[in-house]
Protein backbone atom coordinates (compact mmCIF):
# COMPACT_ATOMS: atom_id res chain seq x y z
CA UNK A 1 0.00 0.00 0.00
CA UNK A 2 1.36 3.41 -0.98
CA UNK A 3 1.93 5.68 1.97
CA UNK A 4 1.29 9.32 1.30
CA UNK A 5 2.63 11.50 4.07
CA UNK A 6 0.98 14.80 4.88
CA UNK A 7 2.56 18.10 5.83
CA UNK A 8 1.33 21.51 6.95
CA UNK A 9 0.62 24.35 4.54
CA UNK A 10 2.35 26.84 6.85
CA UNK A 11 5.14 24.67 8.17
CA UNK A 12 6.46 21.68 6.28
CA UNK A 13 7.96 20.15 9.42
CA UNK A 14 4.43 19.50 10.69
CA UNK A 15 4.13 15.97 9.35
CA UNK A 16 1.30 13.52 9.79
CA UNK A 17 0.13 10.17 8.54
CA UNK A 18 -3.24 10.15 6.79
CA UNK A 19 -4.87 8.74 9.92
CA UNK A 20 -3.40 11.47 12.09
CA UNK A 21 -4.42 14.16 9.62
CA UNK A 22 -8.00 12.85 9.51
CA UNK A 23 -8.35 12.70 13.28
CA UNK A 24 -6.78 16.13 13.85
CA UNK A 25 -8.60 17.85 11.01
CA UNK A 26 -6.28 20.86 11.08
CA UNK A 27 -2.59 21.44 11.87
CA UNK A 28 -1.68 22.64 15.37
CA UNK A 29 -0.64 26.02 13.88
CA UNK A 30 -3.93 26.53 12.05
CA UNK A 31 -2.57 25.38 8.67
CA UNK A 32 -4.04 22.55 6.62
CA UNK A 33 -2.61 19.15 5.77
CA UNK A 34 -1.58 18.50 2.18
CA UNK A 35 0.00 15.41 0.64
CA UNK A 36 3.75 15.68 0.46
CA UNK A 37 3.58 14.67 -3.17
CA UNK A 38 0.40 14.09 -5.11
CA UNK A 39 0.32 10.38 -6.03
CA UNK A 40 -0.16 9.18 -9.61
CA UNK A 41 -2.99 6.89 -10.66
CA UNK A 42 -1.51 3.42 -11.12
CA UNK A 43 -4.33 1.86 -13.13
CA UNK A 44 -4.64 1.97 -16.91
CA UNK A 45 -7.57 3.65 -18.67
CA UNK A 46 -8.78 0.20 -19.76
CA UNK A 47 -8.85 -0.98 -16.15
CA UNK A 48 -10.54 2.17 -14.90
CA UNK A 49 -13.24 1.94 -17.58
CA UNK A 50 -14.33 -1.43 -16.16
CA UNK A 51 -14.89 -0.22 -12.60
CA UNK A 52 -18.02 0.67 -10.72
CA UNK A 53 -18.01 3.64 -8.36
CA UNK A 54 -16.80 1.70 -5.34
CA UNK A 55 -13.96 0.01 -7.16
CA UNK A 56 -12.86 3.35 -8.54
CA UNK A 57 -13.08 4.89 -5.07
CA UNK A 58 -10.77 2.18 -3.80
CA UNK A 59 -8.18 2.85 -6.50
CA UNK A 60 -8.10 6.56 -5.65
CA UNK A 61 -8.31 6.35 -1.86
CA UNK A 62 -5.67 3.65 -1.49
CA UNK A 63 -3.12 6.10 -2.86
CA UNK A 64 -3.85 8.65 -0.15
CA UNK A 65 -4.67 6.68 2.99
CA UNK A 66 -2.61 4.47 5.30
CA UNK A 67 -5.44 1.94 5.58
CA UNK A 68 -5.34 -1.76 4.77
CA UNK A 69 -7.32 -3.01 1.79
CA UNK A 70 -9.83 -4.56 4.16
CA UNK A 71 -10.29 -1.37 6.18
CA UNK A 72 -10.67 0.77 3.10
CA UNK A 73 -13.14 -1.52 1.39
CA UNK A 74 -15.17 -1.66 4.59
CA UNK A 75 -15.39 2.17 4.63
CA UNK A 76 -16.23 2.43 0.93
CA UNK A 77 -18.84 -0.32 0.92
CA UNK A 78 -20.67 1.22 3.88
CA UNK A 79 -20.58 4.72 2.42
CA UNK A 80 -21.62 4.24 -1.19
CA UNK A 81 -24.53 1.86 -0.79
CA UNK A 82 -28.28 2.22 -1.11
CA UNK A 83 -28.19 5.48 0.84
CA UNK A 84 -27.81 6.79 -2.70
CA UNK A 85 -30.95 6.64 -4.78
CA UNK A 86 -29.15 5.42 -7.91
CA UNK A 87 -26.84 2.47 -8.46
CA UNK A 88 -24.46 4.67 -10.41
CA UNK A 89 -24.02 6.84 -7.28
CA UNK A 90 -23.12 9.83 -9.49
CA UNK A 91 -24.95 10.06 -12.84
CA UNK A 92 -23.50 12.14 -15.67
CA UNK A 93 -26.36 13.42 -17.80
CA UNK A 94 -26.31 15.35 -21.04
CA UNK A 95 -28.78 18.19 -21.49
CA UNK A 96 -28.37 20.63 -24.35
CA UNK A 97 -24.72 21.57 -24.82
CA UNK A 98 -23.50 20.53 -21.38
CA UNK A 99 -22.91 17.47 -19.23
CA UNK A 100 -24.17 17.63 -15.66
CA UNK A 101 -22.42 15.67 -12.96
CA UNK A 102 -25.21 15.04 -10.46
CA UNK A 103 -23.59 14.85 -7.04
CA UNK A 104 -26.87 15.12 -5.16
CA UNK A 105 -28.22 11.58 -5.03
CA UNK A 106 -27.29 10.95 -1.39
CA UNK A 107 -29.39 11.35 1.77
CA UNK A 108 -29.16 15.12 2.10
CA UNK A 109 -29.48 15.99 -1.59
CA UNK A 110 -26.19 17.87 -1.90
CA UNK A 111 -22.68 17.03 -2.98
CA UNK A 112 -21.48 17.09 0.62
CA UNK A 113 -22.86 13.54 0.89
CA UNK A 114 -20.09 12.35 -1.43
CA UNK A 115 -17.50 12.90 1.28
CA UNK A 116 -19.58 12.91 4.45
CA UNK A 117 -21.02 9.48 3.78
CA UNK A 118 -17.54 8.06 4.15
CA UNK A 119 -15.85 10.44 6.61
CA UNK A 120 -17.35 8.86 9.76
CA UNK A 121 -15.95 5.47 8.70
CA UNK A 122 -12.57 6.98 7.85
CA UNK A 123 -12.46 8.76 11.18
CA UNK A 124 -13.41 5.75 13.28
CA UNK A 125 -10.90 3.59 11.45
CA UNK A 126 -8.17 6.21 11.84
CA UNK A 127 -8.90 6.63 15.56
CA UNK A 128 -8.76 2.88 16.07
CA UNK A 129 -5.48 2.57 14.18
CA UNK A 130 -3.99 5.28 16.38
CA UNK A 131 -5.23 3.57 19.54
CA UNK A 132 -7.17 6.67 20.61
CA UNK A 133 -9.40 6.38 23.62
CA UNK A 134 -10.94 9.86 23.80
CA UNK A 135 -14.42 10.58 22.52
CA UNK A 136 -14.19 12.57 19.29
CA UNK A 137 -16.18 15.79 19.13
CA UNK A 138 -16.83 16.96 15.60
CA UNK A 139 -17.28 20.72 15.34
CA UNK A 140 -18.69 21.91 12.05
CA UNK A 141 -19.49 25.32 10.68
CA UNK A 142 -21.92 25.13 7.81
CA UNK A 143 -23.33 27.39 5.14
CA UNK A 144 -26.21 24.91 4.92
CA UNK A 145 -25.31 21.65 3.24
CA UNK A 146 -22.27 20.43 5.18
CA UNK A 147 -24.15 20.60 8.46
CA UNK A 148 -26.93 18.28 7.41
CA UNK A 149 -24.63 15.90 5.57
CA UNK A 150 -22.32 15.69 8.60
CA UNK A 151 -25.24 15.17 11.00
CA UNK A 152 -26.62 12.43 8.79
CA UNK A 153 -23.21 10.77 8.56
CA UNK A 154 -22.28 10.97 12.24
CA UNK A 155 -25.67 10.59 13.96
CA UNK A 156 -25.63 7.62 16.35
CA UNK A 157 -22.02 6.72 15.57
CA UNK A 158 -20.69 5.69 18.96
CA UNK A 159 -17.52 7.27 20.27
CA UNK A 160 -18.28 10.44 18.30
CA UNK A 161 -20.35 13.53 19.08
CA UNK A 162 -21.19 16.21 16.57
CA UNK A 163 -21.97 19.94 16.92
CA UNK A 164 -23.10 21.98 13.95
CA UNK A 165 -23.17 25.77 13.75
CA UNK A 166 -25.16 27.42 10.98
CA UNK A 167 -25.98 31.08 10.20
CA UNK A 168 -29.55 31.55 11.51
CA UNK A 169 -30.67 33.70 8.63
CA UNK A 170 -28.38 32.41 5.91
CA UNK A 171 -29.84 29.04 4.89
CA UNK A 172 -32.93 27.97 2.93
CA UNK A 173 -36.10 26.82 4.77
CA UNK A 174 -35.54 23.22 3.66
CA UNK A 175 -31.90 23.32 4.74
CA UNK A 176 -32.87 24.69 8.14
CA UNK A 177 -35.53 22.05 8.75
CA UNK A 178 -33.19 19.31 7.60
CA UNK A 179 -30.85 20.29 10.42
CA UNK A 180 -33.25 21.25 13.22
CA UNK A 181 -35.22 18.01 12.84
CA UNK A 182 -32.07 15.88 13.05
CA UNK A 183 -32.32 12.82 15.28
CA UNK A 184 -29.52 11.18 17.27
CA UNK A 185 -28.56 11.79 20.92
CA UNK A 186 -24.99 12.61 19.94
CA UNK A 187 -26.03 15.57 17.78
CA UNK A 188 -26.26 19.27 18.64
CA UNK A 189 -27.37 21.97 16.19
CA UNK A 190 -26.92 25.68 16.89
CA UNK A 191 -28.07 28.73 14.93
CA UNK A 192 -25.51 31.55 14.97
CA UNK A 193 -26.35 35.22 14.86
CA UNK A 194 -23.84 36.00 12.15
CA UNK A 195 -22.83 34.74 8.72
CA UNK A 196 -20.97 31.61 7.65
CA UNK A 197 -17.56 33.24 7.92
CA UNK A 198 -18.31 34.20 11.53
CA UNK A 199 -19.24 30.61 12.29
CA UNK A 200 -16.23 29.18 10.48
CA UNK A 201 -13.78 31.61 12.11
CA UNK A 202 -15.16 30.83 15.56
CA UNK A 203 -14.84 27.10 14.99
CA UNK A 204 -11.29 27.50 13.67
CA UNK A 205 -10.40 29.49 16.81
CA UNK A 206 -11.68 26.70 18.99
CA UNK A 207 -9.42 24.24 17.18
CA UNK A 208 -6.34 26.29 18.03
CA UNK A 209 -7.43 27.20 21.57
CA UNK A 210 -4.86 25.29 23.67
CA UNK A 211 -6.55 26.07 26.97
CA UNK A 212 -9.89 24.66 25.87
CA UNK A 213 -8.13 21.68 24.35
CA UNK A 214 -6.40 20.82 27.64
CA UNK A 215 -9.57 21.38 29.63
CA UNK A 216 -11.57 19.03 27.42
CA UNK A 217 -8.80 16.46 27.10
CA UNK A 218 -9.02 16.12 30.89
CA UNK A 219 -12.68 15.22 30.44
CA UNK A 220 -11.84 12.68 27.74
CA UNK A 221 -12.79 14.67 24.64
CA UNK A 222 -10.89 15.49 21.51
CA UNK A 223 -11.98 17.88 18.77
CA UNK A 224 -12.02 17.12 15.11
CA UNK A 225 -13.50 18.66 12.02
CA UNK A 226 -15.91 17.52 9.35
CA UNK A 227 -15.37 20.70 7.34
CA UNK A 228 -13.67 20.51 4.01
CA UNK A 229 -10.40 21.46 5.68
CA UNK A 230 -10.21 17.77 6.70
CA UNK A 231 -8.33 15.73 4.12
CA UNK A 232 -10.82 12.96 4.82
CA UNK A 233 -13.33 15.20 3.06
CA UNK A 234 -11.12 16.23 0.21
CA UNK A 235 -9.79 12.88 -0.93
CA UNK A 236 -13.15 11.12 -1.54
CA UNK A 237 -14.11 14.03 -3.80
CA UNK A 238 -11.29 13.24 -6.22
CA UNK A 239 -13.09 10.04 -7.15
CA UNK A 240 -16.00 11.65 -9.00
CA UNK A 241 -13.76 13.66 -11.30
CA UNK A 242 -12.32 10.37 -12.51
CA UNK A 243 -15.84 8.96 -12.64
CA UNK A 244 -17.11 11.89 -14.74
CA UNK A 245 -14.27 11.50 -17.19
CA UNK A 246 -14.89 7.77 -17.55
CA UNK A 247 -18.62 8.31 -18.12
CA UNK A 248 -17.91 11.00 -20.74
CA UNK A 249 -15.70 8.51 -22.60
CA UNK A 250 -18.39 5.82 -22.36
CA UNK A 251 -20.98 8.27 -23.68
CA UNK A 252 -18.76 9.05 -26.67
CA UNK A 253 -18.31 12.71 -25.69
CA UNK A 254 -14.51 12.34 -25.67
CA UNK A 255 -11.89 9.69 -26.30
CA UNK A 256 -9.48 8.84 -23.49
CA UNK A 257 -6.72 11.43 -23.45
CA UNK A 258 -8.81 14.29 -24.81
CA UNK A 259 -9.46 17.20 -22.46
CA UNK A 260 -12.71 17.51 -20.52
CA UNK A 261 -13.40 20.83 -18.80
CA UNK A 262 -15.22 21.33 -15.51
CA UNK A 263 -17.14 24.29 -14.14
CA UNK A 264 -17.47 24.07 -10.38
CA UNK A 265 -19.79 26.18 -8.22
CA UNK A 266 -17.37 27.19 -5.51
CA UNK A 267 -17.45 28.32 -1.91
CA UNK A 268 -14.74 26.91 0.31
CA UNK A 269 -12.73 25.73 -2.74
CA UNK A 270 -12.87 22.08 -1.68
CA UNK A 271 -14.79 20.61 -4.59
CA UNK A 272 -12.73 22.27 -7.32
CA UNK A 273 -9.48 21.53 -5.51
CA UNK A 274 -10.33 17.82 -5.60
CA UNK A 275 -10.67 18.17 -9.39
CA UNK A 276 -7.30 19.83 -9.55
CA UNK A 277 -5.80 16.96 -7.53
CA UNK A 278 -7.32 14.49 -10.02
CA UNK A 279 -5.60 16.37 -12.82
CA UNK A 280 -2.27 16.24 -10.93
CA UNK A 281 -2.74 12.47 -10.57
CA UNK A 282 -2.78 12.18 -14.34
CA UNK A 283 -6.46 12.52 -15.26
CA UNK A 284 -6.50 14.23 -18.67
CA UNK A 285 -8.88 16.97 -17.49
CA UNK A 286 -8.70 20.30 -19.28
CA UNK A 287 -9.63 23.62 -17.74
CA UNK A 288 -11.36 24.31 -14.44
CA UNK A 289 -13.75 27.24 -14.20
CA UNK A 290 -14.18 28.38 -10.62
CA UNK A 291 -17.72 29.79 -10.47
CA UNK A 292 -18.73 32.31 -7.80
CA UNK A 293 -21.92 34.18 -6.97
CA UNK A 294 -21.96 37.86 -5.93
CA UNK A 295 -19.46 36.98 -3.20
CA UNK A 296 -16.87 36.90 -5.94
CA UNK A 297 -13.69 37.03 -3.91
CA UNK A 298 -12.26 34.06 -5.84
CA UNK A 299 -13.14 35.54 -9.21
CA UNK A 300 -11.21 38.67 -8.28
CA UNK A 301 -8.34 36.57 -6.96
CA UNK A 302 -7.93 34.56 -10.16
CA UNK A 303 -8.10 37.75 -12.24
CA UNK A 304 -5.74 39.90 -10.19
CA UNK A 305 -3.76 37.75 -7.76
CA UNK A 306 -5.13 39.83 -4.89
CA UNK A 307 -7.34 38.11 -2.35
CA UNK A 308 -9.39 40.69 -0.49
CA UNK A 309 -12.11 39.71 1.93
CA UNK A 310 -12.75 43.31 2.97
CA UNK A 311 -16.00 43.74 1.15
CA UNK A 312 -19.74 43.55 1.68
CA UNK A 313 -21.08 40.08 2.36
CA UNK A 314 -24.07 39.16 0.18
CA UNK A 315 -26.77 36.70 1.19
CA UNK A 316 -27.65 35.10 -2.15
CA UNK A 317 -29.91 32.38 -3.54
CA UNK A 318 -26.88 30.09 -3.60
CA UNK A 319 -26.12 30.19 0.15
CA UNK A 320 -23.60 27.35 0.13
CA UNK A 321 -21.34 29.66 -1.85
CA UNK A 322 -21.80 32.71 0.39
CA UNK A 323 -18.25 32.63 1.63
CA UNK A 324 -15.50 35.25 1.74
CA UNK A 325 -12.77 33.08 3.26
CA UNK A 326 -12.27 30.06 1.04
CA UNK A 327 -10.28 27.81 3.33
CA UNK A 328 -9.08 25.26 0.81
CA UNK A 329 -7.45 27.88 -1.38
CA UNK A 330 -4.66 27.75 1.18
CA UNK A 331 -3.81 24.30 -0.13
CA UNK A 332 -3.49 25.51 -3.71
CA UNK A 333 -1.39 28.45 -2.53
CA UNK A 334 0.98 26.05 -0.84
CA UNK A 335 1.22 23.75 -3.85
CA UNK A 336 2.02 26.82 -5.96
CA UNK A 337 4.30 28.83 -3.71
CA UNK A 338 5.41 26.68 -0.76
CA UNK A 339 4.98 26.99 3.00
CA UNK A 340 6.90 30.18 3.64
CA UNK A 341 4.82 32.27 1.26
CA UNK A 342 1.58 30.60 2.33
CA UNK A 343 2.27 31.33 5.98
CA UNK A 344 2.85 35.01 5.21
CA UNK A 345 -0.26 35.19 3.02
CA UNK A 346 -2.44 33.63 5.72
CA UNK A 347 -0.98 35.98 8.33
CA UNK A 348 -1.83 38.93 6.07
CA UNK A 349 -5.35 37.56 5.60
CA UNK A 350 -5.75 37.30 9.36
CA UNK A 351 -4.37 40.76 10.09
CA UNK A 352 -5.50 42.87 7.14
CA UNK A 353 -8.01 40.69 5.36
CA UNK A 354 -6.00 40.86 2.16
CA UNK A 355 -2.95 39.26 0.53
CA UNK A 356 -1.31 38.94 -2.82
CA UNK A 357 -0.07 35.74 -4.41
CA UNK A 358 1.57 34.76 -7.63
CA UNK A 359 -0.78 32.46 -9.52
CA UNK A 360 1.41 30.00 -11.36
CA UNK A 361 -1.46 27.57 -12.02
CA UNK A 362 -3.16 28.56 -15.28
CA UNK A 363 -5.49 25.59 -15.39
CA UNK A 364 -8.02 27.36 -13.15
CA UNK A 365 -9.79 30.62 -13.93
CA UNK A 366 -12.65 32.49 -12.31
CA UNK A 367 -16.11 33.53 -13.48
CA UNK A 368 -19.14 34.68 -11.56
CA UNK A 369 -22.89 35.06 -11.92
CA UNK A 370 -25.14 37.73 -10.45
CA UNK A 371 -28.51 36.85 -8.92
CA UNK A 372 -30.26 37.92 -12.13
CA UNK A 373 -27.95 35.76 -14.25
CA UNK A 374 -28.52 32.80 -11.93
CA UNK A 375 -32.30 33.06 -12.25
CA UNK A 376 -32.04 33.55 -16.01
CA UNK A 377 -29.88 30.43 -16.31
CA UNK A 378 -32.46 28.26 -14.51
CA UNK A 379 -35.18 29.53 -16.82
CA UNK A 380 -33.16 29.23 -20.01
CA UNK A 381 -31.96 25.68 -19.40
CA UNK A 382 -35.48 24.61 -18.48
CA UNK A 383 -36.94 26.24 -21.61
CA UNK A 384 -34.35 24.64 -23.87
CA UNK A 385 -34.09 21.19 -22.31
CA UNK A 386 -36.78 20.67 -19.64
CA UNK A 387 -34.02 20.17 -17.04
CA UNK A 388 -34.44 21.97 -13.72
CA UNK A 389 -31.19 23.01 -12.02
CA UNK A 390 -30.72 24.18 -8.47
CA UNK A 391 -29.38 27.68 -7.80
CA UNK A 392 -25.76 26.62 -7.25
CA UNK A 393 -25.66 24.59 -10.42
CA UNK A 394 -27.20 27.60 -12.18
CA UNK A 395 -24.34 29.82 -11.03
CA UNK A 396 -21.99 27.31 -12.64
CA UNK A 397 -24.04 27.22 -15.83
CA UNK A 398 -24.01 31.02 -16.16
CA UNK A 399 -20.27 31.05 -15.45
CA UNK A 400 -19.76 28.39 -18.13
CA UNK A 401 -21.58 30.55 -20.69
CA UNK A 402 -19.32 33.48 -19.85
CA UNK A 403 -16.21 31.33 -20.03
CA UNK A 404 -17.23 29.99 -23.44
CA UNK A 405 -17.87 33.50 -24.76
CA UNK A 406 -14.55 34.79 -23.44
CA UNK A 407 -12.29 31.89 -24.33
CA UNK A 408 -13.91 30.69 -27.54
CA UNK A 409 -13.25 27.16 -26.27
CA UNK A 410 -15.41 24.29 -27.50
CA UNK A 411 -13.93 21.58 -25.26
CA UNK A 412 -16.75 19.45 -23.79
CA UNK A 413 -17.84 20.86 -20.43
CA UNK A 414 -19.02 19.17 -17.27
CA UNK A 415 -21.15 21.37 -15.02
CA UNK A 416 -20.63 20.08 -11.53
CA UNK A 417 -24.16 19.93 -10.18
CA UNK A 418 -23.99 20.23 -6.43
CA UNK A 419 -27.56 20.20 -5.14
CA UNK A 420 -31.04 18.98 -5.94
CA UNK A 421 -33.45 21.76 -6.94
CA UNK A 422 -35.68 20.42 -4.16
CA UNK A 423 -33.41 22.01 -1.57
CA UNK A 424 -34.11 25.44 -3.00
CA UNK A 425 -37.68 25.12 -4.31
CA UNK A 426 -38.67 28.69 -3.67
CA UNK A 427 -35.90 30.34 -5.64
CA UNK A 428 -35.89 27.69 -8.34
CA UNK A 429 -39.64 27.96 -8.94
CA UNK A 430 -39.57 31.76 -8.85
CA UNK A 431 -36.85 31.67 -11.48
CA UNK A 432 -39.10 29.53 -13.66
CA UNK A 433 -42.12 31.78 -13.14
CA UNK A 434 -42.60 34.96 -11.09
CA UNK A 435 -46.04 33.79 -10.08
CA UNK A 436 -44.48 31.43 -7.53
CA UNK A 437 -42.66 34.25 -5.71
CA UNK A 438 -45.00 34.49 -2.69
CA UNK A 439 -45.65 30.76 -2.29
CA UNK A 440 -44.63 28.58 0.61
CA UNK A 441 -41.41 26.62 0.00
CA UNK A 442 -43.12 23.34 0.83
CA UNK A 443 -46.20 23.89 -1.33
CA UNK A 444 -43.76 24.47 -4.17
CA UNK A 445 -42.27 21.01 -3.78
CA UNK A 446 -45.41 19.56 -5.32
CA UNK A 447 -45.27 22.15 -8.11
CA UNK A 448 -41.65 21.34 -8.85
CA UNK A 449 -42.57 17.68 -9.08
CA UNK A 450 -45.15 18.50 -11.76
CA UNK A 451 -42.93 20.84 -13.71
CA UNK A 452 -39.75 18.74 -13.67
CA UNK A 453 -41.22 15.25 -13.71
CA UNK A 454 -38.67 14.31 -11.03
CA UNK A 455 -40.39 12.93 -7.89
CA UNK A 456 -39.84 14.65 -4.51
CA UNK A 457 -36.80 12.82 -3.10
CA UNK A 458 -37.64 10.43 -0.29
CA UNK A 459 -35.41 12.01 2.41
CA UNK A 460 -37.34 15.31 2.39
CA UNK A 461 -40.86 14.06 1.80
CA UNK A 462 -43.03 15.44 4.60
CA UNK A 463 -40.12 17.20 6.30
CA UNK A 464 -42.33 20.12 7.37
CA UNK A 465 -44.29 17.78 9.63
CA UNK A 466 -41.32 16.45 11.56
CA UNK A 467 -40.71 17.65 15.15
CA UNK A 468 -38.09 20.36 15.64
CA UNK A 469 -35.48 18.86 17.96
CA UNK A 470 -32.91 21.67 18.02
CA UNK A 471 -33.80 25.23 19.01
CA UNK A 472 -30.43 26.57 20.18
CA UNK A 473 -29.41 30.06 19.09
CA UNK A 474 -26.09 31.62 20.05
CA UNK A 475 -24.22 34.90 19.56
CA UNK A 476 -21.10 34.41 17.46
CA UNK A 477 -18.89 35.53 20.36
CA UNK A 478 -20.26 32.80 22.62
CA UNK A 479 -19.58 29.67 20.59
CA UNK A 480 -16.72 28.48 22.82
CA UNK A 481 -18.89 28.88 25.92
CA UNK A 482 -21.65 26.97 24.20
CA UNK A 483 -19.30 24.11 23.38
CA UNK A 484 -18.17 23.92 27.03
CA UNK A 485 -21.79 23.87 28.11
CA UNK A 486 -22.81 20.98 25.91
CA UNK A 487 -19.89 18.71 26.80
C1 LIG B 1 -20.69 23.26 -0.37
C2 LIG B 1 -21.40 23.55 -1.62
C3 LIG B 1 -20.78 24.24 -2.67
C4 LIG B 1 -19.37 24.77 -2.55
O1 LIG B 1 -18.42 23.74 -2.48
P1 LIG B 1 -16.95 24.06 -1.92
O2 LIG B 1 -16.28 22.76 -1.85
O3 LIG B 1 -17.15 24.69 -0.59
O4 LIG B 1 -16.33 25.00 -2.88
C5 LIG B 1 -21.51 24.45 -3.82
N1 LIG B 1 -22.77 24.03 -3.94
C6 LIG B 1 -23.40 23.38 -2.96
C7 LIG B 1 -24.83 22.98 -3.15
C8 LIG B 1 -22.75 23.10 -1.77
O5 LIG B 1 -23.38 22.45 -0.80
From TrEMBL:
Cofactor dependence: pyridoxal 5'-phosphate
GO molecular function: threonine synthase activity
EC number of this enzyme: 4.2.3.1
Annotated Threonine synthase N-terminal domain residues: 6-80
Annotated ranges, domain Tryptophan synthase beta chain-like PALP: 101-418
Keywords: Lyase, Pyridoxal phosphate
Pfam families tied to this protein: PALP, Thr_synth_N
InterPro entries in UniProt: Thr_synth_N, Thr_synth_N_sf, Thr_synthase-like, TrpB-like_PALP, TrpB-like_PALP_sf
PANTHER family noted in UniProt: THREONINE SYNTHASE-LIKE 1
Stated family: Belongs to the threonine synthase family.
NCBIfam families per record: thrC
Protein name according to UniProt: Threonine synthase
Native source species: Anaerotignum lactatifermentans
Lineage of producing organism: Bacteria, Bacillati, Bacillota, Clostridia, Lachnospirales
Amino acid sequence: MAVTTYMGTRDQSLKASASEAIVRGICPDGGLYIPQGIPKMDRSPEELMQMDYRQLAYEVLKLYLDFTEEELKYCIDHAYDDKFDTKQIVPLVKKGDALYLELFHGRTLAFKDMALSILPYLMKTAAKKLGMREEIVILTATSGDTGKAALEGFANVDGIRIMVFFPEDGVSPVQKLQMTTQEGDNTCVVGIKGNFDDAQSAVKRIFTDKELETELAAKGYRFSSANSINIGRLVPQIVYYYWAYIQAVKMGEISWGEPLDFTVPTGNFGDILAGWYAAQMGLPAGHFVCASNDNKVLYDFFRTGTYDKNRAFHVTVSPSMDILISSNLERLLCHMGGQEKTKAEMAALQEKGVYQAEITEKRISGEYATEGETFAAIKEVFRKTGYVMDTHTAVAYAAYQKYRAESGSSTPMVIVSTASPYKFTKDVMTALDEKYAGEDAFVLMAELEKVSGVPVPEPIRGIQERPIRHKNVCEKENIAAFVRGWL
